Amino acid sequence: MTATLAQALPSDHVRIATDVHTEPFWQAARERRLVAPRCGSCGHFRLPPTPFCPECQSQEVDWVELSGRATVFSFSVVRGLPGLDDLVLVAVVVDLPDAPGARLVSNVIDVDPGEVRIGMDLEVAFHPISDGWLLPVFRPAGGTG
């Protein structure tokens, strides 16, 4: 029996709203780049993007392009949603080694959910969502696709 691979939500089920603090993240994703905001004063990374640095309250921010590498910090397997009975999601919180202290909530795709482990190496991929945006999701590192 073939295992059902983890997938992303169908594109028409994901909508985002941007503002001045999140727009650079989403514009970079649209260009298939993963970025994180770093405080221009103290260097602290912060995700999700916020108006003020949680460490020093500065409003200065530099957007740093990341390698796209990540590791699983935590995850949960979700099987089926209302109207999407066959959907298998692996919701994940990832550590980003290029942005120490920053974590991102996303999904792992193209993997047997039973193989996902804390500490697993991942790499970013981009999944189309509504309104022409791309959502950063993750695949096992070294995979194909």
Taking all residues together, what is the mean pLDDT? 91
Radius of gyration: 16 Å
Number of helices: 1
- The number of strands is 7
| DSSP strand content | 35-45%
Q: Which percent range fits the helix content?
A: under 10%
Strand order of the largest sheet: 5-4-3-6-7
How many distinct folded domains?
1
End-to-end Cα distance, whole Å, is 23 Å
Shape: globular
Uncertain runs with pLDDT below 50, 5 residues or more? none
Structural class assignment: mainly beta
Give an overview in words.
There is one protein chain. By secondary structure, this protein is mostly beta strands. The protein has one domain (18-140). The protein has one helix at 23-30; strands spanning 35-39, 61-65, 69-81, 84-95, 103-108, 121-128, 134-140. Strands 5-4-3-6-7 form a 5-stranded antiparallel β-sheet. Strands 1-2 form a two-stranded antiparallel ribbon. The longest helix has 8 residues, at 23-30. It is globular.
Key traits:
7 strands, 5-stranded antiparallel sheet, 145 residues, mainly beta, two-stranded antiparallel sheet
